[in-house]
Each structure stands twice: as structure tokens, then as C-alpha cells.
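#struct-help
A.M.: can someone run this one for me? Single chain, 563 residues.
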Amino acid sequence: MKENLVLIGNGMAGVRTLEEVLKLEPEKYNITVFGEEPYGNYNRIMLSPVLASEKTIDEIMLNDEQWYADNDITLLKGIKVTKINRARREVIGEDGTTAPYDRLIIATGSTPFMLPIPGADKYGVIGFRDIGDVDTMLEASEHYHKAVVIGGGLLGLEAANGLMKQGMDVTVIHIMDRLMERQLDKPAAKMLQKSLEKRGMKFLMEHTTEEILGEDRITGLRFKDGTQIEADLLVMAVGIKPNITLAQESGLHCERGIVVNDTMQTFDPRIYAIGECVQHRGIAYGLVAPLFEQAKVAANHLAEHGIGRYEGTVTSTKLKVTGIELFSAGDFSGDEHTEEMVFQDIAGGNYKKLVVRDNKIIGTVLYGDTIDGTWYFQMMKDGTDISEFRNTVLFGQHHLGDSGHGDETRVSLMADSAEICGCNGICKGDIVNAITDKKLFTLDDVRAHTKASASCGSCTGLVESLLAHTLGGDYEDAPSKKPMCGCTDYTHDEVRSSMIQQQLKTMPAVRDFFEWKTPDGCPACRNALNYYLLCAWPEEYEDDSQSRFINERAHGNIQKDGS
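D.P.: on it. C-alpha cells below:
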């Protein structure tokens, strides 16, 4: 007879645990999932590209509702769990739904930290955590123009970039003197800020917000130095905190997060906890790679295989802003016992820094050329002694080879155990074996079979290089052509050239010719089409004033001749 397994939280960490359990013991449990949001399981990492109109909600779904049905999983979506009755071993939802459990997984994730600033309860003040927040920002971008993001960290910059892509005038407020201070040193942070400023993003560094202005809706912010700034929308991206309320009310031992052991069990051995709500050996993780490692361990014990321990994770960071390559891992600050190896090319936009202790890399920051990030990261995790190639280590892995340069050469020199996709824990050998054994020829094929590059997408270049190296002339790179937006499968160049060849002189004409997926397009393609039409037909095309306004704010000043 099957036991009952209940999952509270329909996010990436919890559902990955179910996937691993189903691989090991598919017939062991009757599974029930409670999810607060009215969706299947989606890739929360990719909310930033959705905000920037580079992805759609459908494209970031990891497990749609059919997946739950196919695996006989009961999905109770849109239902918040309000109580865990540990004595009766049952979970109770806010609508009265109850589900008995023999084993329970708590994966309630985290909540955005909202600064206790006077006025923080006004309309237009939000966090950045789920699809609802993205919808709120997209709606605001259609009616308002000035956005402020508090927080110059990873999430804040991604939110700011997305809002800018929607045509908003965006200012980032940061309390520190440099961006992403937890991941970058000063030179790299300065290069990043300059690059973002060139795109139109504005910054107020070392500013502390004292009050949020406005009656019912935000109209601006006042800072401690007395200065003010106008704002129609405020996004707080100053950090997250583990969502432990339910666990605390259930009597489970919590500190900063739900305290778990190396098998991901709480102090109640029938209850496991996974993800951002968890505290393991004093650490709460906010990145996806550790959560997936936790999922594998928990699943192994839920399947009663009885092996596997989670001992913590060395993490790395990448920024999901299109066109900006950045990689950071480990201790990039160092101390009196460490050495720094630095390469800096300001004009070329490249910066590399390795922090070394006893001939072992303990931290790295890369900006611009980040292809060797995976190699450095693997050496960090393995504790590799770099004595024999110390003189060339800063110049990348391809310097260890006898000949050849470029990404293909560098990725070919990586060991099969080198981790390519940190989000899903996929190593080079897994990908190469899948390409050869399953006869994969495209990036989409690799994503479907291995999940490499299917989460945050920052390893896409490495996966494509592996495809090219493994297949040679058989590699098909067409799927990596980037369409103009989610409304069409055609690229900017294809649309622009056909506009002239086919004498297309209005937005509806372009959309009809290319069979646009959405009748009126989206802000991204409307902006682009307006600009291209104005350039192609300056005398005949009637300028769209709203798109022109957005282009002037976000991209530059379009002259009457279309230049």
C-alpha cells in the first residue's frame, strides 16, 4: 500500500525533490502538492527575462499541469496551507482542504524583505518575487513612466533592466558605494555601473530612503540628506528572508530558517524541509544550485535508499542582463594570507581577478570574458593546485592546450566532471554523452534531455560550444537565433530587411506579413518596429508618439530623418 507524501510549496526546490523521488521509487507514494500561486511549477530565476519581454510565462514553465496528471500527483493550486497538525499528521489549507501525510516536505521558499520605511504601504510599492509582481510591474509600465528600484544587488539590477526594457525611466537607489558588493570588487562593480549607465539606467549611490511620498499612491521618495526624487513605481529588492511562519506555528525548531540536518530532516523526522526556507549548518541559501543538491539528498532518503548527505555548497553568481557577462564565486576579497592575480582591460571591457591561497583558487570575479568561469569554479571546488600552470592560469584554459583558441577549444579542455550548468548540477560528461547517445543536434534538444541551459540560461554559450565541439559540422545553431521578441520567431534583421523588400510601411502591415502571435505586439516589438519604420520610410511613416517617447527615454533621441 502506498504511503502519503505531501509537499507544501509548488516551487523549484520542492518539485525537483518530487522529480528525484519519482526517478528512484515511482510507486512508493501518493503525492499531493499545495501551491499558493495559481500555476504549475515555473522557473523563478527567469522572471527577470519575462519582465524584460525576452521570455513568456509559458516559456518559463518547468512542469505544466499535465505533468502532475501524468505522474498521478494531486495539485492543489491557489491554496495556502495554514496549519500542520503533527499529532494527526495532516495538512490543512485555508479553504478547509485537508491532506494526510506519512512524510511531509516543507518548501515554502522565501519572502522579499520590505524596508520599514514610512509610506511603504502605498500603492505602487512592491517586491520582486513572483509572477504577480511581474504582472504588477508590466501593468505599471503601461500607465506610468518613472520607476525607482531600491537595491543595487543581483535582483535589483535585473528588475531595473526589465523595467527599462518596458520603456520606464529607471533609477536604482543603493546604500553602498558599489553595485553587487556581495559578488563584485570595486573595479568590476565600476565597469558594470558604467555599462548599465550607457544603456540609460541611473544610479544614486550611498543614498538612504527616509520616506515614501504620496497620498494613496507613491509619487516620490525623500532621502536622509533631504533630497527627493519623483517615482510612480517603487520596487524593493533589498534581500529575502526564509518563509518559516508555518513551520514555527507547527512547533518545528527554527532559527533564521527551518533547521535541518544533513538528510534535510527537521527535528520531526517525518518532516523534511527544502530550499530557501531552510537553514543548514547555519546557512540559508538563496540560489538554485544548492537547493537542487538538497533535493537530491532528500529524495534519496524519502525513497528509503538511505545514502547521501548534504554538506553545503560553494556558490557562484551570474547576472541575467542581456549583453552583460559577469561571473563571481567564492571569496573575492581575500585577506593578508592571500594573493591576487588581476587582468584589467578597461577599453576592451574585460576584467579578471583570481584570489589565491597556498596555490589554490578560493575566489574569482570575471567581467566581459566569462567563459573560463566554469573552469575556475571547478578548480575552487576541487581544491586544485595551480603551481604548474600558475603563470598562464589568468589567461584561461585554452593556454593549457597545444593549439587553437576560442570557446570550443576551451570547453573541450574541461574535464568530464566539470560542472557546466550550476542550476541543475549537469557536468560536461552528462551533456556530451547525451549528445552522442541520443543523437542531439540543437540547443533545444540538449535542454529537453539534460535540462542544461534550461534554467537561468547563463551557461548557454558553454552548451553551444560543447555542441559545436562534439558534432563538428553537424551542429545546428539555427535555434539559437534570437527572435525580436516573444510575438514572433523572426529576428530583428529578418524583420527589418523584409520591411523594405515587401514595402511594409505600417506596424499592422508588418505584423500581418510575419503572422505576429499577438495582435498588437508587445512594448519591446512596438518600440523596435516604430524605430525601423521611421528609418525605412521617414517621409511616409507616421510616427507612433508613445513608442517614440519610450525610445527616446530608453535608447536615444530619434531625429526626423530616422537617425
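A.M.: thanks! The two ends are 72 Å apart (CA to CA).
D.P.: also worth noting: The chain has four domains: 3-109+241-302, 125-238, 316-479, 492-554.
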